[in-house]
Write a structure and sequence with these properties.
mainly alpha, about 0% strand, single chain, 26 helices, about 475 residues
């Protein structure tokens, strides 16, 4: 049975929950078997359990029909497919290569245009380009169709450009707040909310407003407000607004971070798997985030499988931030699976090959994983050699100033100094208490610190258990 409907079953597994909710309100089949097929596609996409098999007694042509219907329905609202079409027409107009059937399709599209859609700005700019093309060729009837469209939507276009520029200015303010922590951005909130929820504004501007609100609420640590706008955009996606698989992947990945911040790790894992269904430029980042969640959920085997399955993606990427993230998680996963020697060899090889990239991009992430393995293997001298060679103590003292600081590396170096006889037990306790003086740890930081202490206390119980009571 599975072999017979293998292609359709694989296709049905690609349907995302928001796509399923959109399709649920769109089909009107009179044929009961077609209704059964589409209902099961939707039910499987929305379920978190094992999918139910399709009935192989139903004519296979009906499965083909449903597949084509779903693809057409989703393509018709896919904003990425629309922009690809607009850009393709633009190129053909500029190079005098547009075919008559393409012109006919475009003229029909703008003559029946009703609602301001996601790519409205690009569409309007294409119409202006096309108007000149038609006038030079003295095609007055078609020119009038295009000119009428341009005149009808002139005010909308002007407004959309004003909003776009305001959003750019807001982006500068909000990203500066994140990187420099030097300004308040609350004055933007009500305007951004109004823009996000206004259906008369083009979708690209509305989506940008959503992204900025999410950024702002993250800056202010306002998780309740963050959840409200996520639930709101979820509803818009179900209605078929602002939809593409790229945008959905980005949204699911953002939900991973939201739920992990709220300690809802099962939900974070669910969205993590959804975020990597679509292979795009950010797939490796989404994968790394999901692996982090699987480690939090004590599922190193699942994390190992994921990393293995995406090894080609890791090898091909030139994004060193994510490349280092992948390798750091690989070391951690191998360590969790008690493959400590392999974890150490992986770290050693990577550091040799990408030393400069590690130091320039994510030294802390990488060395935390590497040093943890060396501590488990009781290779204290190697820890001290790394600390000396790469100036880790100085780097750590700089890092202490950050809000999310956890003294994992600092404690590991102090433990190694003690184990190698460089300091006595009193000095060790002073050193491991020192980084805590400057910070008031959040709940999440405390949890991470206790996890680090539990690991280190395997090597030296007395000092680290005393530290635990200190936290």
């Amino acid at each position: 049975m599975k072999t017979k409907l293998k292609k359709f079953t694989e296709f049905s597994k690609t349907i995302l929950p928001n796509e399923a909710k959109y399709l649920k309100d769109k089909y009107q089949f009179t044929d009961s078997e077609k209704r059964r097929i589409i209902s099961l596609v939707i039910a499987n996409a929305l379920s978190q359990n094992k999918p139910i098999d399709f009935d192989d007694k139903i004519d296979k042509r009906k499965y083909s029909y449903i597949k084509v219907w779903i693809e057409k329905k989703l393509a018709s609202i896919d904003v990425d497919a629309t922009i690809a079409w607009i850009m393709s027409l633009n190129k053909k107009i500029l190079t005098d290569a547009i075919a008559s059937n393409e012109e006919k399709e475009f003229l029909h599209y703008i003559s029946t245009y009703k609602n301001i859609e996601y790519n409205f700005q690009n569409l309007y700019e294409l119409a202006k380009e096309y108007k000149s093309y038609l006038l030079v060729r003295m095609r007055y009837k078609d020119h009038k169709t295009v000119a009428d469209f341009i005149e009808s939507y002139r005010i909308h276009y002007k407004e959309s450009i004003i909003i776009k520029d305001k959003l750019y200015a807001a982006t500068t303010e909000i990203t500066n707040q994140y990187t420099l922590n030097n300004n308040e951005t609350k004055h933007l909130e009500s305007w951004l909310l109004k823009t996000f929820n206004d259906k008369n504004i083009d979708g690209k501007n509305r989506y940008q407003a959503f992204v900025l609100l999410a950024f702002m609420y993250t800056n202010y640590n306002e998780n309740d407000k963050l959840k409200i706008i996520f639930d709101q955009i979820d509803y818009y996606f179900n209605e078929g607004e602002m939809y593409s698989r790229r945008i959905l992947s980005n949204y699911y990945a953002s939900r991973v971070l939201l739920h992990s911040k709220q300690d809802e790790f099962e939900k974070a894992e669910f969205y993590g798997y959804l975020s990597i269904r679509q292979n795009n430029n950010d797939a490796l980042m989404y994968l790394n985030n999901l692996v982090a969640i699987l480690l939090r959920n004590h599922k190193p085997e699942n994390a190992f499988s994921l990393l293995e399955n995406h090894h080609d993606l890791y090898k091909e990427t030139h994004n060193y931030h994510q490349k280092i993230g992948y390798c750091s998680y690989q070391i951690r996963v191998l360590s969790e699976l008690k493959k400590h020697k392999l974890a150490e060899a992986t770290a050693k090889t990577f550091l040799k090959k990408y030393k400069n990239e590690v130091l320039n991009h994510r030294w802390h992430h990488f060395f935390t994983s590497y040093i943890n393995v060396l501590i488990i293997l009781e290779k204290y001298e190697d820890v001290l050699k790394l600390a000396s060679k790469f100036n880790l103590i100085e780097k750590e003292s700089e890092r202490q100033k950050q809000n999310n600081y956890v003294p994992n590396i600092s404690w590991s170096i102090s433990l190694s100094r003690y184990m190698e006889g460089h300091i006595n037990s009193k000095r060790l306790l002073d050193e491991i208490k020192a980084p805590l003086k400057a910070i008031c740890p959040t709940k999440n930081q405390k949890q991470l610190m206790i996890k680090v202490i539990d690991t280190l206390s395997n090597n030296l119980p007395e000092a680290f258990l005393e530290l635990k009571s200190h936290i």
